[in-house]
Design brief:
Layout: H1 2-26, E1 41-43, E2 54-58, E3 69-73, H2 80-87, H3 89-96, E4 99-104, H4 120-123, H5 128-144, E5 151-156, H6 158-169, E6 176-180, H7 191-199, H8 206-214, E7 225-231, H9 240-253, E8 261-265, E9 268-274, E10 280-287, E11 294-296, E12 311-313, H10 318-326, H11 331-338, H12 384-394, H13 415-425
Helix pairs in contact: 1-7, 1-13, 8-9, 12-13
């Protein structure tokens, strides 16, 4: 009992610190609600969706056969549309001819709209949110004819950490990834560990970091190529996490920690690592003086995106640089997109795609606890045990033993524990 109280108190303090830093990092700039209509379309039926996420997509008017596919994961407090608007991904897709998928978190899953990059059920292969995103990829290949050999994933903050999850759990699916202000795979398995990984400088060994990826999937290569971005003044996710991401993937790909080259781009630094064949497999951008957010260049030839909360002018467009690193920004793509063409039908023959593996679940696993608008079904009876269990799960804590703590109904009767758990988890008894 005392241990639970201490843990919940610790989580509450960390959550308050997180919210304080997140608010400070968002700055004073804000977008006007409804400033423009969304460019994205929502796709309602894309699989069993055990993570209870939403799928949005963008397909340019002019794409070639088997176009590349980019999965873009928003950060906390953001939506699919706001992430597209800030980063400019769909505008770049118009120019270069690739398809976009934007998974979107729901407040029913996380009050801050963060992806659950720290909960074991959502970060393991073929379960939870990771499987939902994997199913979105399969749907995009089937529906839009995306090329299954040119699939990439990127994200910011919690979305960046979730990009780490996808690269580790489905490395055979992704040709490359980009992690912006994120964390390495396996950094946390509970709410408390997540906050501590974000705020503190730690020093896990490269072997331990690599082992986490190797244990995530039965895969031994080839591995995705990785681009890592982090601001040196980030107070929400400690910049040391960028080095840990690099060390994790260097160990996995058996590449020396000594960089193959380094260059200065204005005030910023880019390092690269090559394999034995001389191919660049990893790059890392350190953005001098930048806080928590996506680096933008809002003027110049490579201008892309719109500055706002967590979308920061840095004189360097991460969206453009990442596309080039993945090989999407080619002369052929630019020439094809610059030609004047009439809009064409995007219904292309879908290439073969590995089937989703069987998984052990009951039908109840795929029934969302909440409606799409985030409200509880009014026809569903309130179940105190279920709410308490959800609260402890979200807080990353085990359920207390029932012995001596429950009444005849099996409901925990300590109001203090229930209230503290619900508050710590950010849940309410609607």
């Amino acid at each position: 009992m005392a241990g639970i109280g201490i843990s919940l108190s610790r989580i509450r303090k960390l959550r308050e610190l997180f919210e304080k830093r997140l608010k400070a990092a968002s700055g004073k700039a804000a977008w006007r609600p409804g400033a423009r209509p969304t460019r994205l379309q929502e796709i309602a039926n894309f699989g069993s969706n055990p993570g209870n996420l939403r799928m949005h997509a963008y397909v340019p008017h002019d794409v070639g056969p088997s176009p590349p596919l980019v999965v873009a994961l928003h950060g906390c407090t953001q939506t699919a549309d706001s992430y597209d608007r800030g980063t400019g991904w769909s505008r770049l897709a118009d120019r270069l001819g690739f398809i976009l998928v934007f998974p979107e978190q729901q407040p029913a899953n996380n009050p801050k709209n963060c992806f659950s990059w720290f909960l074991p059920r959502d970060t393991a292969r073929d379960t939870g949110e990771a499987l939902s995103i994997r199913e979105m990829v399969a749907k995009a290949v089937e529906k839009f004819g995306a090329g299954h050999s040119r699939i990439f994933v990127t994200g910011l903050s919690a979305g960046g950490a979730m990009a780490s999850v996808m690269l580790a759990t489905y490395p055979e699916i992704f040709a490359g990834g980009a992690i912006i202000a994120g964390l390495p795979y396996g950094s946390a398995s509970s709410v408390q560990e997540a906050f501590e990984a974000m705020f503190n400088e730690r020093a896990p060994s490269p072997r331990a970091l690599g082992d986490r990826v190797r244990a995530a999937a039965n895969h031994r290569g080839p591995w995705p190529k990785i681009s890592v971005w982090h601001g040196t003044a980030d107070t929400v996710v400690h910049p040391s996490n960028a080095d840990h991401i690099i060390r994790q993937w260097l160990d996995v790909q058996k590449i020396s920690e000594r960089s193959s080259g380094e260059e200065r781009i204005g005030r910023h630094t880019r390092r690269v690592w090559k394999n034995a064949n001389g191919d660049t497999r990893l790059e890392a951008f350190s953005i001098t003086g930048m806080g928590h957010g996506v680096p933008l260049a809002t003027t110049g030839v490579d201008s892309c995106g719109i500055a706002g909360p967590f979308f920061l002018e840095a004189g360097l467009s991460s969206t453009h640089k990442i596309a080039r690193f993945w090989g999407l920004d080619t002369a052929e793509a630019r020439e094809r997109q610059s030609a004047t063409r009439a809009a064409t039908d995007h219904t292309l023959p879908a290439p073969s795609f590995p089937p989703l593996p069987a998984r052990d679940y009951t039908p109840a696993d795929d029934v969302p606890l909440h409606k799409r608008d985030g409200t509880r079904d009014r026809h569903t009876a309130f179940d105190p045990n279920a709410v308490i269990a959800a609260a402890f799960k979200a807080a990353g804590l085990p359920m207390p033993e029932k012995t001596g703590q429950t009444g005849s109904s099996g409901v925990i009767n300590s109001g203090g524990i229930i209230a503290a758990a619900l508050k710590a988890a950010g849940l309410t008894r609607n």
